[in-house]
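Let us begin with a simple case.
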Amino acid sequence: MAGIIFFKTQNLKKLADFYQGYLGLALWLDQGGCHIYEAGNLKLGFCQREKTETQGVITFYYPDRATIDALYQKYREIATSEPRLNPDYNIYHFWAKDPDGRALEFQYFMPPVEAAKNPLELLNPQSTKPLLLLTMLLPEAAMQELKQNFRVLANTQDRLLRREELLAGVKNAEALLCLLGDRVDSEVMDAAPKLKVISNYAVGYNNIDLDAAKARGIAVCNTPGVLSESTADLTWALIMNTARRILPAERFTREGHFVGWKPLLFLGKDVYRAKLGIIGMGRIGQAVARRASGFGMKVIYTANSEKTLDFPAQRVELAEFLKEADIISLHLPLTDQTRYLLDTAELDMMKSGAILINTARGPIVNEAELIKRLQDGRIYAAGFDVYEYEPHIPQELMELENVVLLPHIGSASIETRTEMGLLAAANAIAIIKGEKAPARVV
């Protein structure tokens, strides 16, 4: 049995812009004066009438708490509450309103065990060393280094800490070793009067309020350099997968559809001798570009100034770059200047049939506009390791066959993640000892 929930509205156009354009629901059926939208198993119908109905609640259900937090950041302008736990119903949710004033609920049903268990555990309670809050367990070599130098209060569950857990855990900490998914702002810093160092287990640090840290005399460190080659490897995995349609071809074969060679079966694009465009010619961008020589590719890049490189590459302005590159790969940090660097106009400038790879940060690209161009085929394919509202991935993106979607694993090799952990530990240890940290940002 299937069902549709219908509402009356006096402004069908405004609701179309909201539910399809803003929330990203798919238009399932257009009957002129009545539009029906689809989100997973939910179908919502809105019909043009002289009177508007706003009774009831439209609830959108999601699989985890982190997605609710990400959606709250995305939809803050329509939110009427912050995300919070409701212990009566064991749900984590926030409220919002649509243009007609209907109540919208974005919700996650929490398993009883998850709701009850405290994830923070003191790993070496006999230690008298400075306290460090570790927001998720690291590879064993890094864990041993931390326990030798700190009393380690660690999140032992395989999930991000909730906001209240982070605030409680950092209360007496002198050091915080955190992840990109941990939002470390002035509230967190004010909750930790003893805090001396925030060591981020990542190269990027857009999750940390640098101005707030600087004002409070708290050092901020990151892990550059050690993950360049691993991220470059993964970038090339995305390039080859998108260009040659590896994943749909693999699924086709596993499902038993392969009955023999055919001239038009899973035609893709050549990588050999294609033009590779790099946006962000830093360590990772250069590592990706070096690998292009084996494919006989011409490398172009866009940057504020010429780079001294040990391989042939041509610097061009962004507009020319977008028109020329067959494959574009992003390798730059997320800042106010790079947010939506590839917006509507820039995506339209891209060469028809180009491939876009993003292993940097999701908000560098206007994800909704990119999806439209992937749907109509103007952009041939895209490879994602990061997303605009991570970990939330729009349903329209999930349904596309010309994309490869990965769960932010650019640096996920055993060797690299261990090196990152050791560098993050070394940063925290150095600051606590009053020494120079290997990779300090502020």
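The second case is a distinct protein. As before, the sequence precedes its structure tokens.
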Amino acid sequence: MNNPAALCSVVVCSFWLALPLAARTAEPEPAATTATEPPQLIWCLDHFPYFHEYDSTDTPTGPSVTLMQELAKRAGFILNFSPRTKLARCLKLMEKGEVDLMSNLKYSDERNQFIHLLPYSDNVAESLFVRKNDPRLINNQAQLRGMTLATLRHFLYNPATMKLIAEESRHITEVGSIEVALEMLLRNRIDGLVAPTISTTEAINDVSSYQQRFKIAPIDFSGSAPNNLHLGIARNSRHATLMPLLQQHLQAMIDDGTVARLIRNPTDRPQVEELKQ
């Protein structure tokens, strides 16, 4: 221990070890914890006239958008919109958990496997659209058997319509959109289109060349079985644990009349009545 440097090192080390642990720690105290950021959920949606429409913009508009924004406000999450995405693609993304929400969904056992389905509104009305100059008075199912009809691919119809589609499948053509089906109808490639009443009416009114070219047949497609619209939450979403919270606030919006106010029954709109004449 005759080495002065070694002696100095021992003294310094001994002094450091004798200090309290807090005094030995040179790290600064952690900063105060910031408030937790609200979760961000992605709503996947297509162009569904009247309910949610893009209309050549990046931000959708319509009653469904207002409803979802109100739900986000009450439940405390940030709502992000997908670009305009086809229904089939949205369902695939929901299955993978790459998006979180969908709306205006009909129930099926298949969808229930990968989506929590929360009912919030009544069934969407459906109608048979034919050419304005079609002389036939189509008011019962038997009259459909000699017709070639188009239906929308991946769209779930009410049970009565689904039964009809199954029985008449030889004469049914599935198409990807209302717009494509209307063009086919206009060009005499099909005899009629079975589709959502309001959305199809909106699609007709959006194109000037469609005016006075189509009408709604008097046959009733409403059916009597319950067939609600649902809010969908992806079971594989990283935010799936929010499902009870969303269900709670959605039910509150039903109970206080918010859903009924925002998603008004549009079946008696003047545009629809005009097509029925």
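The chain has eleven helices and ten strands. Residues 40-122+228-266 form a domain with the D-Maltodextrin-Binding Protein; domain 2 fold (CATH 3.40.190.10).
Keep these points in mind for the review questions at the end of the chapter.
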